[in-house]
Amino acid sequence: MSTVKVALHGDAILTSPQFNKGTAFTEQERRDFGLTGRLPWRINSLEEQCARAYDQLQSRETDIRKNSFLQSLKDQNWVLYYALISSHLQELTPIIYTPTEAEAIANYSHLFRRSEGLYITYPEEDSMEESFLEQTRGRNIDLIVCSDAEAILGIGDQGVGGIGISSAKSAIYTLIGGIDPSKAIAVTIDVGTDNKGLLEDPLYVGWPNRRVRGEDYDRFVDKFVQLVRKYFPHSLLHFEDFGVTNAYTLLERYRTTHAVFNDDIQGTGAVTLSCVMAAIGVTKTKLIDQRIIVYGAGSAGLGIAKQLRDAMVTADGISTEEANTKFWLVDKHGLITHSLPDVREQLKEFAKDIDGFAEQEVGLLDVVKQIKPTVLIGCSTHAGGFTEDVIKSMAENCDRPIILPLSNPSKLVEVHPHDANEWTNGKALLATGSPFPPAKMPSGKDYVIAECNNALIYPGLGFGAMLSQSRAVSDTMIIAGAQRLASLSPALKDPDDALLPDFGDAPKVNFEVAVAVAERAIEEGVAGVDWKKEEVREKAKAKLWEPVYPNYEFDAAGEKGVHAGYKI
After folding, report:
1. What's the domain range around 178?
2. Which of 66, 74, 169, 352 is catalytic?
3. Is 240 annotated as a binding residue?
4. If you placed Cys at 162, which of 188, 238, 335, 563 could pair as Cys (CB 3.0 to 4.6 Å)?
5. What is the three-class DSSP state of 426?
């Protein structure tokens, strides 16, 4: 067990979530830190504390109350919080992240108890640098997760409540990616809100003004990004739940000058790419052989299309223009065509000519019948959008159709996977965005529905970039991570098994993803470390943070403490 020096004493250490051990302080530590009399006599192990905390959690009857309990625990004791969730990962991740966190964010101002990150607020632009430094001074920051909260978890504009998604995403990086929480910071960029309910709510704690847009928005966000680049040049800047236009604009603006990452675009695209790669491993085909329909042309749909397209270019050596011909994007208005008015700039490279279709407005079923897809991906939030006719039409022309209804939450899924399994007579290769129970194959065997969850890959992508201190997160680094995830698919050993590993294995899976990403960064010459590829795995192991209590020594000289949890 490691030993670290800590300068806090008495109530100061008990109220520090970074250093507090609660009833786990040893007898010697209680004497040294002035805690005798401040704690009950019994000394508990971390395992005993987890058991007690889990019992307390179970007494909360609703998921939102469980979310509130876990947030309170996080405010008290980081190690206990992460140890508890790690021991019940599949059960508790939906409580601290999607879908429950969406409800917590929607009610943020009414649930508010204490701050949980850095609030960058538009009318305080002149003091932005001062606020930034106050929160980060003396800290070695590897990860900054920020959101302007315009497009939160399917519930839209949530204003200052966006700090909740930044905080939750950061916690997932620690739980699944092994990132030291003391080296991460959650940020909300409060540029107002267009949510009428929030603007009219007297308890709303954010800046109660309509959203700032255009040049003023760009200037404000750029000032923040430049502070990140100035003070933490080797950090990863993670953009989360920005509106679709700003999401793409910011990613393109900064991706060559800093290590930036957008999970809604790149993470969703990467895990879907892994899923498709695993599926074509079953069908013994290539990416270039696929005809792919993406239903839903928002940031997720476009991100998926671009990620799959870029992988085709890399893996099969074809041009971007040729790869674009393999995709058909469909939204609520139908097929994205050149003849449609107001097609977003980012969609134009995938737009099709109307030639070959009988009607001017071409719906999903028309496209399926015409192009005979091998892959059907849903990210539309249109519940039931993949009708029985759509699924059966696809199966008529494809031996093992790859069907990925990815919309969250489960009530918004394009097709229930059990229905898709039945309508294809068990031929479909399936994955969903939310967890579903297994489906029955015609043989009576259970078919495990893979959960195409971003958390299977984005913590590893981020950890790999941080580990290698990469100057950018390149497309090929992301593809390397996706390929590594796909190689771990259970379906490659049994074609009727899940396309992706079980979420319970997410920490191990993301470690492998991180190693692949860092190795690729070194190969490409964008890493900021002077390592050989062969050293990456051991370097990654040494960097992993784990929720364990070290021994503490009181630092009477006032030396700065080291964060609990490091394996030293």
Report:
1. 100-258
2. 169
3. yes
4. 188
5. coil
